[in-house]
Amino acid sequence: MNWRAVHQFVPMLAKGDAIGDHVMWIRDHLRTRGLDSEIFVGTRHSRTLNETHPLDKADSRLKGTRDSLLLYHVAQASPCADFLMSRDEPLALIFHNFTPPELLLGWDPAAAFEILRAQDQLADLVEKARFAICDSAFNARDLLSFGEVPCSVIPLPVAKDSPPRPKPAKPVILFVGRIAPNKGIHDLISAMKILHERHPDVELRIVGGSTSDAYQNAITGLLKALGLEESVSLTGWVTDEQLEVEYSRASIFCSLSSHEGFGVPLVESMSQGVPVIAHANSAIAETLGNGGLLLTDRSPSVVATALERVLLDEALAKRLSESGLRRSKAFTSNQVADAFDEALELGKPR
Questions:
Q1: 246 near 207, Cβ under 8 Å?
Q2: Which of 3, 4, 106, 278 is deepest in the core (most CB within 10 A)?
Q3: 0.85 exceeded by pTM
């Protein structure tokens, strides 16, 4: 690897966030390879102040040399994009994809507008970038719609070795992710209503913070209207330690998301041996592979029946758990590190 330094730029760095965890993994990996590597952010987060530098300090810290690579994580509009367009150092992109703005427009018009602005920024960045990295082939195809750029597909290093899980004490359906319109939480709750009528002891746990007050309020209202306030828990943001506990207690992980560029909780679930049921769209089928049960229909009755079958059929649940564990091996740090180094080598200084 002939780069002297690889510095990362990201709109904001948050712990417990898929992009934030990826950024810090890259930083730590590069440093083990002896490279200078820092993280610059457009907006600082209170929980990562010690991990980042503000964007307005980047100009004084960068050397402006051709053997320094600037690596930008594209996920939302940011002043980082304008700054990087003005720099002479080689630029590479890591494209995490955007939530389609039409999925947000009715709930959060401002967020939808910001995605459109981010798309405009990306069209300019693609023209300048030397190469790109995407964490799924789905994202790579979307990136091509913004222009031609050499692209490597490298998944996120999510999987961890976990001890064998005890059988959950009670039936728990788990979803991990933001409370946002594209995540399909309303569909999952509708399926839970049917399942709960058949099995009153089943609990649904929705783990993650909200990014849309309007959607959060709608979900709260839906739970009240369906009489599920005691059977569905909205935990909000949790620590990594708390998240481990949630996975350890889960009988099934279920995602009905309308759009995922990768789907980190799918891999986290598989690596913990939690059977996975997911709606097959965007990058979900690609990430899950044969490691779980893919649904082509996410209507409440179909989802409830799938959940019920896995809850009642221990042999099926065991097969899903084992296939998920096998699939998760594709997402270990060692597997990803070699591919990442190869991508940097292909884009080395010239």
A1: yes
A2: 278
A3: yes
Which residues 6+ apart lie within 8 Å of 160 measured at CB?
A: 268, 271
pLDDT in tens, 265-286: 999 999 999 999 999 999 999 9
Contact by Cβ (8 Å): 93, 82:
no
Which helix (H) or strand (E) segment holds residue 67: the answer is none
Is residue 75 pLDDT above 90, yes or no? yes
Inform me whether the pLDDT recorded for 161 exceeds 80.
no
Query: CB–CB of 295/277 below 8 Å?
Result: yes
For residues 179 and 258, state if they share a domain: yes
CB neighbours of residue 46 within 10 Å = 6
Q: Are residues 73 and 122 in the same domain?
A: yes
52 and 141 in a single domain? The answer is: yes
Is there a single domain that holds both residue 339 and residue 310? no
* Residue 319: C-alpha distances to residues 229, 235, 293, 315 (Å): 32, 29, 10, 6
CB atoms near residue 18 (< 10 Å): 22
